[in-house]
Design goal:
ABC_Gly_betaine_transp_sub-bd, 311 residues, three-stranded antiparallel β-sheet, carnitine transmembrane transporter activity, D-Maltodextrin-Binding Protein, domain 2, 45% helix
Length: 311
C-alpha cells in the first residue's frame, strides 16, 4: 500500500510540469515579453518645442507635436527666433526642434552648441538655399551676375530683401557678399512674411528683386522663380540636410518621445501638400496637420511603430 502511495506521489509531481525554479523563470519571461509589447516608457510628459515661423518649420513643428500628443505627451509649441530656438534646447529650457539645417545654414549654431545638442534624425535631404530672382530676370542667373551690375543695382537700390537677422541664410548671404565682391550691395532685415510680400508685389508688377530663398517653400509653387547659381557653394552646394535635434538627456528622460523622433521623417510631397494651405490660404496649421494625419494612417503607423498610443 505504501509502495502504491509513493508511486502516486511521483506521478503527480511529473504531471505538475516542472520545478519551482522553472515556474519562476516562466513568469519572468512572461513579464519581459509584456514589457516589450508595451513599448518605451513615456517618462517626462511635458515637452517644449521651439520653432521659427518659416514655411516648412511651421508644418513640421505642428506635425511632430501632434504625433507626440497622440502617444501621451503634452507639447508646448513656442514660436521664437532662430537664436533662442537653438539656445533654449542647448540650455535645457526646451527639449527639441525640427529645424537644424546642416552642414551649412546653421553651421555657426551647431559649432556653438554641439556639446549640448544631439542629432536625433535626418528628416529631409537636399534642402537647397540660394539668392533667388523671378525667372523673367533673364540676364541674372548667378550670384556673380550681381557684381558691378549698375542697371540692376540702381533698379533695386542695391538691396537684397532679407528675413529675420538670426536666420542662417542671412549669415550665408553676408558671406556671399564678401566672397563674390558685392561691395555695393546691402542686405536688409525684416521677416519671412515681409520679404514674401515685397517679392509678390515685385512679381505682380514684373519688377526686379533679389531675395534669399530655400526649398522646400510654398512660394515656388505659386511663382516662377529661379535660384541663382553659387559657384563657390556659400549656401552649401546641392543643399543642406534637415535634422530633428534634441537636448542631451532627452532620450533617457522621455524614451517614447525620442523613439517617435527617431522614426519620423518627411518628403517634399507631404510638405508641399501642406505648406500652401497654411501660408497661401491662411488655414490653421494644427488643422492642416490633423487632416494629413487622418488621411495618411499608414504613414502615421510607420512613424509610431512600436509606440503605444494614448488617445
Amino acid at each position: 500500500m505504501m509502495a502504491f502511495a509513493l508511486l502516486l506521489i511521483m506521478l503527480l509531481a511529473a504531471c505538475g510540469g516542472g520545478s519551482e525554479e522553472e515556474t519562476e523563470a516562466d513568469a519572468s519571461d512572461d513579464e519581459g515579453s509584456e514589457e516589450t509589447s508595451e513599448g518605451p516608457e513615456i517618462g517626462q510628459k511635458d515637452l517644449t518645442q521651439p520653432y521659427v515661423a518659416w514655411a516648412r518649420e511651421t508644418i513640421s513643428t505642428h506635425m511632430l507635436g501632434a504625433l507626440l500628443e497622440k502617444v501621451g505627451y503634452n507639447v508646448e509649441l513656442k514660436q521664437v527666433e532662430a537664436g533662442p530656438m537653438w539656445s533654449s534646447v542647448a540650455d535645457g529650457s526646451a527639449d527639441f526642434h525640427t529645424s537644424a539645417w546642416l552642414p551649412a545654414t546653421h553651421a555657426s549654431y551647431w559649432e556653438k552648441y554641439e556639446g549640448d545638442i544631439v542629432k536625433v534624425k535626418q528628416v529631409l535631404d537636399k534642402a537647397p538655399l540660394a539668392l533667388s530672382v523671378p525667372s523673367y530676370m533673364e540676364d541674372v542667373n548667378s550670384i556673380e551676375d550681381l557684381k558691378g551690375n549698375e542697371e540692376l543695382g540702381e533698379a533695386v537700390d542695391w538691396q537684397v530683401i532679407g528675413i529675420d537677422p538670426g536666420a542662417g541664410i542671412m549669415e550665408n548671404t553676408e558671406e556671399a557678399f564678401e566672397a563674390y565682391g558685392l561691395d555695393n550691395w546691402e542686405l536688409t532685415t525684416s521677416s519671412e512674411a515681409a520679404m514674401l510680400a515685397e517679392l509678390q508685389s515685385a512679381v505682380e508688377n514684373e519688377e526686379p528683386i533679389v531675395v534669399p530663398l530655400w526649398k522646400p517653400h510654398w512660394i515656388f509653387g505659386t511663382m516662377d522663380l529661379k535660384m541663382l547659381e553659387d559657384p563657390q557653394e556659400i549656401y552649401g552646394g546641392e543643399g543642406d540636410q534637415i535634422y530633428t535635434v534634441a537636448r542631451k538627456g532627452l532620450e533617457e528622460d522621455a524614451p517614447r518621445a525620442y523613439k517617435v523622433m527617431e522614426q519620423y521623417n518627411e518628403s517634399y510631397e507631404m510638405i508641399d501638400e501642406m505648406m500652401p494651405k497654411v501660408h497661401a490660404e491662411d488655414q490653421d496649421p494644427a488643422e492642416v496637420v490633423q487632416e494629413f494625419i487622418d488621411n495618411n494612417p499608414d504613414l502615421v503607423d510607420e512613424w509610431l511603430d512600436g509606440v503605444p498610443r494614448e488617445e
